[in-house]
Amino acid sequence: MHLSKLSLTNFRNYQRLEWEPDRGINILFGDNGQGKTNLVEAINFLSTTRSYRTSIEKELINWSASHDDISAARVEGEVVGKKGKLRLELALMGRKSDSGKTSSLVKPEVDALVGVVHKKILLNGVPRRAMDVVGKVNTVLFASHDIDVSSGAPSQRRRYLDVMESQVNVEYLRALAGYNRILVQRNHLLRQIQEGHANSFQLEFWNNELVEKGSYLVEQRMALIGNICALAADIHRQLTSEKENLIVLYLPSLKEVTADMDRVSIKGNFSTRLELLQKREVAAGMSLVGPHRDDLTFLVNGVDIGIYGSRGQQRTVALSLKLAEAGFLRQTVGESPVVLLDDILSELDSKRRHLVIETLRAYGQVVTTTTELESLEAAFVAGAKVFRVHEGTLTPA
Amino acid sequence: MEPDFTPAAEPVARLIGEFNKLPGVGPKTAQRFTYFLLKQPEEEVRALAEALLAIKDSIITCSSCQNLVETDPCPFCSSSERDSSRICVVEEPMDILALERSRGYKGLYHVLHGAISPMDGIGPEELKIKELIQRLQKGEVEEVILATNPNLEGEATAMYLYRLMTPFGVRVTRLARGLPMGGDLEYADEVTLMQALEGRRQFQP
Ligand SMILES: Nc1ncnc2c1ncn2[C@@H]1O[C@H](COP(=O)(O)OP(=O)(O)OP(=O)(O)O)[C@@H](O)[C@H]1O
Ligand SMILES: [Mg+2]
Ligand SMILES: [Zn+2]
Fold first, then answer.
1. What is the A33 CA–ligand 1 centroid distance (Å)?
2. Which residue from A8, A29, A34, A344 has its CB within 8 A of the most atoms of ligand 1, so it is best to mutate?
């Protein structure tokens, strides 16, 4: 699929933008702070209905617009895929009093809600919930922070899995949202039990719910990792001229769970663990076991690359994982996702860059950013559409 | 100067502040309400003020079903036409209105005034559960219908009540699954509610 039109209104530093990206490779170039990442963020926002840079959506609304009485940022995209054309529109409405300045007329709790904005989503002009539009536009985003995926926090690796699976499986997204809510409720209850304000038999309900949703997540993650492991291994061999063998390994928080287990056995295992851990969970006042504590590890020629790998090796693993993600989406959805690369190409050596470009060419639409056009191969630039980004405007170059 | 920063006279600010406390009313709407009222004739404003006070003066809690009503016991609890062997347990008074609209139920009600939600600090103690148990202890009740909302918190509450009531030997039922999951009883349409009532089942933990 490809993005055929993008229009922005008061999104970040774009007051107004009408853009028709090329179906092939788009290079956004410009100095620091001009709006390259903002544009990548906008495209990804269409795909996930969330910003990957901030959870405070107020920040997405253009500053000058947020001085208006009711400010609004709007991201509209037209996507052409094998199922035809679709139009997706996301609007953020913020109130003036949320802008951070305190007015004496407003109670402080309301001002504390800075960043809480109202989000409206329209798919082909019809209002929808976020849940219903996630994955309508498939994207794979590769930004500089993704380079740390093997050495960074476990939450980053869980996010890698969750973002990928949610794009192709609404049930997963729903289960994940449900699981997170159960977790918050259960953690509060555990604390209340610890303080003697609640009775431990109240845990039964939350345990059942946690096991129900959690086992589904574990089962889906196992299948996903199986897929990704195969795809990433192939790509990694290519990127390293057959020198490195990459294995993506699932480290479930439910340690005894193995790939041959079905959901019923996972549930049984989860329930047993909860029973055994109950005293410790009450003492800790939080949930100690379950998919919220899952992790991944990446072995290169048998060695944990997150711990022992060189920066360059970690970077290549990150690249393999991202290309595997693109491959997974293409395989599952049946068409290529839109690939977004922010500040990535210039970070790679020329050989890897060349391989990445060759791989991506087969994919279709790519949006990539750079501060220096000269750092990219002339042949690559010649085969792409180049746009200059300057102070929130875009001009074909 | 921007209107939001114009210092308002103290009584105006106070009223805006009060409106702002209402559910779903933001600062902007609170201001709109206030300036609207300022322009109204005195009688109109007085009528509103009286109506506001009247709900506190004349609305009381029924000592049996805990519904917010004008008389204690309420018309449901004192009616000979209602089947006192059945109690339908709901989260909020609004839910009774919804169930009555469906015309499918002739028993009594019990209002919990909320649902179990640890993150909001609402446990069984915060709900009118003791009062429900007292009603069961009188021994007249044969069936308790759990009509809490079909969401996590409503289910948690239903489960808690089920465990608590088992020793009383009453039949505990739950509204049928016709209700949209994650929804609120208050917003369910009459036909759906009627079907949910008719199709109620033995509670299964
Ligand atoms: N809500 C907003 N309203 C107006 N401008 C904003 C808003 N949010 C961010 N900006 C501006 O956008 C600019 C950053 O844009 P962006 O992150 O896209 O830069 P970039 O072109 O990717 O730069 P770099 O090459 O450094 O990565 C900053 O100058 C910032 O001040
Ligand atoms: Mg940038
Ligand atoms: Zn009553």
1. 5
2. A34
Identify the helix (H) or strand (E) that includes residue A17: strand A14-19
Question: Smallest Cβ distance to B27: which of A110, A189, A197?
Answer: A110
- With b meaning 16 or more CB within 10 Å and e meaning fewer, what string describes B35-63? eeeeeeeeeeeeeeeeeeeeeeeeeebbe
Spell out the residues 6+ positions from residue A361 whose beta carbon is closer than 8 angstroms to its own. A24, A25
ipTM of the complex: 0.78
Element (H, E) at A388: strand A385-390
Q: How far is the CA of B159 from the centre of ligand 3 (A)?
A: 24
Q: Which domains does chain B have, with CATH numbers?
A: 10-58 (1.10.8.420), 63-202 (3.40.1360.10)
**What is the token pair recorded at A124?**
């082909």
CB of residue A94 inside a 6 A radius of ligand 1 = no
Question: Inter-chain contact A185–B5, Cβ cutoff 8 Å?
Answer: no
At A39-77, the pLDDT tens digits run 999 999 999 999 999 988 889 999 887 655 566 899 999
Q: Which two tokens stand for residue A3?
A: 């993005």
Which among B132, B140, B44, B152 has a CA at the least distance from the CA of B83?
B140
User: How sure is the predictor about B196, in pLDDT bands with cuts at 50, 70 and 90?
Assistant: confident
Q: CA-to-CA distance for A62 and A78, rounded, in angstroms? A: 22
**Are the CB atoms for A211 and A186 separated by under 8 Å?**
no
- Asked if B128 and B113 touch (Cβ cutoff 8 Å), the reply is yes
Which one-letter DSSP state was computed for residue A364? -
Q: Rounded distance, CA B85 to CA B78, Å?
A: 13
Q: What pLDDT digit, counting tens, does each position of A256-297 carry?
A: 999 889 999 999 999 999 999 999 999 999 999 999 999 999
* Structure tokens given for A96: 């003036």
Say if CB A276 and CB A194 are below 8 A apart: no
CA separation for the pair A130, A120 (Å, rounded): 9
Question: What band does A363 get if pLDDT is binned at 50, 70 and 90?
Answer: confident
Convert A116-138 to b/e letters by CB count within 10 Å (16 or more is b).
ebeeebeeeeeebeeeebbbbbb
Q: What pLDDT was estimated at residue B205?
A: 74
Cα four-point dihedral sign A298, A301, A302, A304: negative
B156:A205 CB<8 A: yes
Where are the extended beta strands (E) located within chain B? 60-61, 68-69, 83-90, 107-111, 143-146, 171-174, 201-202
- Tokens 């220096």 sit at which residue? A372
CB–CB contact A198 B123 (8 Å): yes
